[in-house]
Amino acid sequence: MGRDLTRIVWLSLLALTLADCSSFSSKPKVVEPNIFPAEYKKEILDTLTSMLNNPRQVRDASITEPVLRQTGRDERYTVCVRSNSRDAAGRYPGVQERIAYFFGGHLNQLIDATENHCAGAVYKPFPELEKFCVGNNCKS
Question: Distance (Å, rounded) from C-alpha 54 to C-alpha 49?
Answer without folding.
Answer: 8
